[in-house]
Amino acid sequence: MRKIAVALLVLTLLPLAACGEKAFTEAGLRAMLVPEVTQKILAFEYEDYDGDGTFEAFAFVGKEQEPDVDESYMGEIWFVNARGAKKLEAYEHGYWGLINVHTFGKNKFAVLNLYATTGGCVSVWGVHGGKPRHESISGVGGGLRQIDDTSFTLYHSTYDFDVTDGISTGHTWKDYWFYWDGKAFHEYGGVEITEAQLRKCGGAAKILDGIKAEDETIGEIFYRDNGIINVNHFKAYGSSRSNYFTILHLDGTSVTVIEAEDPSGVYQAFLAPDIAIYPKLPEIFN
Fold first, then answer.
1. Which of 31, 70, 248, 283 could bridge to 255 as Cys pair (CB 3.0-4.6 Å)?
2. 223, exposed or middle or buried, with CB in 10 Å at 0-12, 13-18, 19+?
3. How would you write 98-122 as a 3-class SS string?
């Protein structure tokens, strides 16, 4: 009887002039979810996620593990559209934040963040052809920070500051750069360039000479298609060394420094090899 009553309630929430699946309101979709779940609905994000004129919702259902700790939820994510409600995934380990909606191009995405002592990761859901999709950047890195309407960063948490006898220690966090191309997410993969190539850019010689003046050695240098250049450098102490990096941005033929909060650790060419796209080098490096 309860499901019959809910179905009648949903019908009353449809605009009289509307027809088909596009007619469901936020309240109507929420009413479809209620009889399917046993835990509290903590978040319900109603949007047209794929820009086709049809609204859907992602919901987080669960509980707060520690009321005195921010973003300490656990539970399940659900997808709801005119066809019904579907459980997508359980988030039973760690502390999760609730859904944040990010817009890239014409698409919107439901983003959840896992918070952990040593780092975190994101779980990202989109809608394509009316169906939910777990996006390829899920689990790659943490702390999605949107830069503009197509690009963003994810941080990588690892231990690579100090190296002694081949053993790496020292917790570091480094941003890597990603973008949405209208159909899928990709990483700005890095192509290695030489110190001599970098010195062709205006401002580079002064920056590199400053690094060497600190008795540091230049390591691998990576150029990315968004103009980012990651310069790895290190300082040796006998059988040990400490790793650092400098982030540059290429604008035309000159580079400037992008300040990092904690410039320690080693940058790699990519964080997510399966979705990394590598650039053609600008003429200045040839």
1. 248
2. buried
3. CCEEEEECCEEEEEEEEEECCEEEE
10 with 129, same domain: the answer is: yes
In a domain, 156, yes or no: no
CB crowding 227-240: b at 16 or more within 10 Å, else e: bbbbbbbbeeeeee
What average pLDDT does the segment 254-280 reach? 97
Domain boundary residue, one of 120, 135, 150: 135
Three-point CA angle 202, 267, 224, nearest 5°: 50
Q: How far apart are CA 222 and CA 191, in angstroms?
A: 5
The one-letter amino acid at 122: V
Distance, in Å, from the CA atom of 247 to the CA atom of 204, rounded to the nearest integer, reads 11
Is it the case that residue 120 has pLDDT exceeding 90? Answer: no
pTM, two decimal places: 0.89
Whether the predicted pLDDT of 98 surpasses 50: yes
Confidence of residue 208 (pLDDT cuts 50, 70, 90): very high
- What is the C-alpha separation between 218 and 235, in angstroms, rounded? 9
What total number of domains does the chain contain? 2
Who contacts 273 (Cβ-Cβ below 8 Å, separation ≥6)?
A: none
Please say whether the beta carbons of 220 and 192 come within 8 A: yes
The DSSP H or E segment spanning 93 is: strand 84-96
Distance (Å) of CA 56 to CA 76, 115, 228 = 17, 27, 36
Asked if residue 81 is part of any domain, the answer here is yes
Residues 164-179, mean pLDDT to the nearest whole number = 95
- What pLDDT was estimated at residue 284? 97
Q: Taking a C-beta distance cutoff of 8 angstroms, is the pair 155, 142 a contact?
A: yes
pLDDT in tens, 32-91: 999 999 999 999 999 999 999 999 999 999 998 888 777 789 999 999 999 999 999 999
* Domain limits for position 253: 191-285
